[in-house]
Amino acid sequence: MRAIAMLAALIALLPVGTAVAADVDVAAYTKKDQFTDLKISPNGEYLAATVPLEDRTALVIIDRATMKLTANFTPPQNNHVEDFRWANPERVLIELSQKIGALERPRLTGELAAMNADGSATELLLGYRIDDGGLGTHIKPKKDNNRVWGIPIDGPSINDRSVLVSTQVYGSNDPYSNAERMDLYNGRLARVASAPLRSARFTADNKAVVRFAAGADSNNTRHLFYRSGEGAPWETLFVERNGRFEYPIGFSADDKIAYLRVEMPKGPDAIVALDLQTRERTEVLRDDDSDPAQILYRNNTRVPVGVQFMDGRPRVAYFDATSKEARLQRSLEAAFEGSAVLVTSQTSDGRFALVQVYSDRNPGDFYLFDVQNLKAQHVVARREWFDPELTALMKPIKVRARDGLMLHGYVTTPKGSEGKALPMVVMPHGGPFGIQDTWGFDSEAQMLADAGYAVLQLNYRGSGGYGRAFEDAGGREWGRRMQDDLTDATQWAIAEGIAQADRICLAGGSYGGYASLMGVAKEPDLYRCAVGYVGVYDLPKMHADNKSQVFRWGKWTVDWVGKPEELGEVSPNRMAKRIKVPVFLAAGGEDERAPIEHSRLMERALRDAGVPVETLYYNNEGHGFYVEAHRREYYTRLLAFLSPHLGGGVATTTGGTAEKSAK
């Protein structure tokens, strides 16, 4: 089945060699995956796969018996197949996204398309480009379908011809969601339910009947509504209280039990079974410190059967340890010991399962597993140019913060090192709230380890994955306790002998860029340099911009970042005189989330304070660099910046043109 990799090569996805320490080929780390997702058709005849290209993401269909390409859906430039599903044995439903300058990643456009496995009847069914015949549409435009934004509703297809979708009208001042039955071949819509609040998300049962609607009101208070069946009235099931909410994740096979993910007053979220007749609740699964990271479902249903927890390393637990799904999981974990294993799709009869296998050292492989004969056949590697034997280990860690809060994170150390007395890069994640660093192949951490650095990634308070109370603990703690957590973790790494005390730098993006600059301002003697990538550095400005753009964003800033009158004292650009070490700033001119003006203000303040500063600005990039050549140049400049201060390797490739400066 490695023929699939050959198909990828036909569309210009050529592998590159693995880099070695102190001589880092950054192209190996910026190059796109050969495939991002792979799913088997219900009858097992076809495989569908998303293929990242330079400026778009395509979908290909392969005949499993002959391994020949049967269909190819390639959207226009800067458009992407964001997700897809087999709606019936012969037809794939496609969800589209588009790269727009303000964002690093493409965002959903609300467009839905469909294609037969042989490439016939490729149609755009929903979305604003129907009238112009774009994206391969051949049918006569449906009345008003070009004015409708839609996303598929999780759950089974209604039948081989129809699926459920959630819709809103583009540009509407009254954006209430509707659940519609959509014809997979002509896009015709038939309304089956209307939401009781704006911008709601629907959940359907195993008979494709919409039963739940969840969303937030204008005050950001979340509501969960329930109805007993088709045509029944909505009733309020739960309203957010004390920052806690609960989300429906599926139903029992007979639809009498609803399963909810419930945020708890303390500790991680729980999976709870709700008897819809008696309203009795029973806790089904809960970890001691980690939230459910992924819900596992019975084949081709919305019946949840288990959970993957990110408990340092991924760990799978099932509602019933004797179920066939649990037995299959144990067989797979035994076959791929040391790796995380997930079944991504199965045939309707359960005979064949498509399995994703990955680890901290392996970006991921797909295997076709014969459940009956217990045999696995390799299909394709996401990044076959990486040899897992030559990549770095990522070790889960626990650090006790100064106020007693337990923090979780990871340390990646260079291949061949003893993991001691190393130069270290502390890499705070972005977000910050609800975002989490997890175990797996992290390209940036691997690249830095390749250059000879230990990499510390900490899930400071406010991060996701450890319960609502842990996330809430970061509220209004920008530059304060959230920053102290990073300081405490850095000092822990020194005390453990992992990091050399005089060879540590901070480097992060978005909020991580803020935390990096704030770190060298708040702890001027702890770090040797700082890197801020698409960061925000003037919090009063961020608050004013958010408040003027959208009321809810302004409210979010006050609730989560801090009161306007207190933000100046935790703004790095207003603390530049405290910074003693060199700084590297990178930003995009089209970034709306962290406008480039933040980086320019930070640069100006640093220069006025006599602090050495380098910059890399791309006027045509957004919140993160999207063009591969720009990413290569950023990482080339990053390694060149770190090397004089920490002593690690430098890059061997460059690319792109940008507005640059150094002093």
Textual characterization of the structure:
By secondary structure, the protein is an alpha+beta fold. Helix content is 18%, strand content 36%. It contains twelve helices and 38 strands. Strands 29-30-32-31-33-34-35-36-38 form a nine-stranded mixed beta sheet, sandwiched between helices. Strands 2-3-4-5 form a four-stranded antiparallel beta sheet, with helices on one face. It has a four-stranded antiparallel beta sheet with strand order 6-7-8-9, with no helix packed on it. It is globular, with a radius of gyration of 25 Å. The N and C termini lie far apart (53 Å). The model is unreliable at 1-21 and 136-141 (pLDDT under 50).
Q: SSE layout and pairings?
A:
Blueprint: H1 3-10, E1 23-24, H2 27-30, E2 37-40, E3 46-52, E4 57-63, E5 69-73, E6 79-88, E7 91-98, E8 107-116, E9 123-126, E10 148-152, E11 162-169, E12 176-183, E13 189-198, E14 201-204, E15 210-216, E16 222-226, E17 235-239, E18 246-251, E19 257-262, E20 270-275, E21 281-285, E22 292-297, E23 304-311, E24 313-318, H3 324-335, E25 340-346, E26 352-358, E27 365-370, E28 375-381, E29 393-400, E30 406-413, E31 422-426, H4 443-450, E32 454-459, H5 468-472, H6 481-495, E33 499-509, H7 511-522, E34 529-533, H8 539-549, H9 551-561, H10 564-567, E35 583-588, H11 596-608, E36 613-618, H12 628-646, E37 650-651, E38 659-662
Parallel strand pairs: 1-37, 31-32, 31-33, 33-34, 34-35, 35-36
Antiparallel strand pairs: 2-3, 3-4, 4-5, 6-7, 7-8, 8-9, 10-11, 11-12, 12-13, 14-15, 15-16, 16-17, 18-19, 19-20, 20-21, 22-23, 23-24, 25-26, 26-27, 27-28, 29-30, 30-32, 36-38
